[in-house]
Amino acid sequence: MTAPAEAANEDALPEFPMPRACPFSPPAAYTGLRETEPVSRARLKVDGKPTWLVTRHDLYKKVLGDSRVSANLKLPGYPLQVPVPQETLQSVPLTFLSMDPPDHTVQRRMLAPEFSVRRMRELRERVQQIVDQQIDDMLAKGCDGPVDLVTALALPVPSLVICELLGVPYDDHARFEQWAWAIMNHEVSDEDRGLAHYELDRYVDGLVTAKESEPGDDMISRLIAFNRETPAVEHSDIVSMSKLMLVTGHETTANMIALGVLALLEHPGQLAAVREEPELMPRAVEELLRLFSISDAGTARVAMEDIELGGVTIRAGDGILPLNNAANHDESVFPDADRLDVRREARSHVAFGYGVHQCVGQNLARMELDVVYSTLLRRIPTLRLATPAEELRFKDDAIVWGLYELPVTW
Question: Which residues contact 241 (CB under 8 A, 6 or more apart)?
Fold first, then answer.
């Protein structure tokens, strides 16, 4: 067992995050690390702190299934992805994503019924209506030239869906989309990011407060009612859960819609396969989720005890980044992993994380992607890029990979 690299020159460590050379592949360095040093040291770009990177699929699952790691971002060793002043970090309440059991377990049990497979079957017809309406609008706009798929379809669909689920007025979507962008962007100033958090907190607190006195048929109202019958959390916890669902419920799916369409348009053989065999779409969804792994480092952890992993010792207090994108391109699990293959059986991917913190909304994301991709390809069979892929602007400045715009025509 080798000792951790406490004595190594931390200035010589590779910097994280690492840039992608190809939008459809992870950073090239991941391959070498996975093969020769699957548990390795890196230096965080945001604050210069050293952390551990985990790049192999089996070790990724091992560390995220270990009760000796914590998701608590207030711990000193936690590998933050955006700069947050310590005084701010310590003053804000933890969200559902950053809680450890048993607090995390309590909130997950409250949220899980809202995203069950049965609930998604019930919602599918309404999601189909939303998608059809957005495509109707796209087709009307397309008479005048290229249409940006991000603003016309990828962003409105999940925003409309999560607004209806939560009971949030869609007329406010521009505000919460802007707040979400500021919160998740590497290059936003501390002041602007803090202001976005503050304004979003106030907005969601107002919604929850209103529903406490005038409930509706929506998720926030059901969380309030459940908590009144079986008190488990505070008002601030329901605000926190609702805020998290609002932000993550539209941002990640919106990015996957745009990226998935781009990938299919850039791989005509794969596009032809799902058009000729629509029953392949569920597999295609899983493969696209695996291929992009848009939240690469959304599974950050801190070791609470010394842990032996992949031939090294991770000391208590060390930060750990199990990398979704590296694990999902592990050739021992996914042969020819950088190739898009809509026939691949990719359900063992970890795009939604792993363990107790695995994404609670994954059933909703899968269903939305299935409906959007299937409907778009069926209704606009001549869809094509209006701008070469190499000229598109990707979200290199954000913690969630995506596209700022995707001009298309037909």
Answer: 95, 96, 107, 110, 111, 223, 233
Tokens of 232: 């488990």
- Could you give the percent of the chain with pLDDT greater than 70? 98
Query: Alpha helix locations (H) across 112-149?
Result: 117-141, 149
Phi, psi of 372 (to 5 degrees): -65, -55
Token output for 154: 């990828």
Q: Which CATH number fits domain 10-409: 1.10.630.10, 1.25.40.10, 2.170.150.20, 3.10.350.10?
A: 1.10.630.10
Amino acid identity, position 274: V
What gap in Å lies between CA 8 and CA 6, rounded to an integer? Answer: 6
Q: Which residue in 408, 257, 266, 240 sits closest to 340, CA to CA?
A: 266
- Write the CA distances from 63 to 32, 126, 186, 312, 344, integer angstroms: 20, 38, 26, 13, 26
Residue 80 near residue 399 (C-beta atoms within 8 A): no
CA diameter of the chain = 65
Show the DSSP H helices in 94-189 as ranges: 103-111, 117-141, 149, 156-166, 173-183
For residues 208 and 242, the answer to whether their CB atoms sit within 8 Å is yes
CA dist 165 and 134 (Å) reads: 18
The pLDDT assigned to 9 comes to 67
The set of residues, in sequence order, having a beta carbon less than 8 Å from that of 257 and lying 6+ positions away, is: 149, 153, 154, 157, 158, 368, 369, 372, 373
Q: How many CB atoms lie within 10 A of CB 247?
A: 21
Could you report the average pLDDT of every consecutive run of 10 residues in the chain (410 residues)? 50 90 93 97 94 98 98 95 81 88 96 95 97 96 90 96 95 89 83 89 96 96 96 95 90 96 98 97 98 93 98 98 98 97 97 96 97 98 96 91 96
Whose structure tokens read 């001009």?
A: 407
For residue 95, count other CB atoms closer than 10 A to its CB. 18
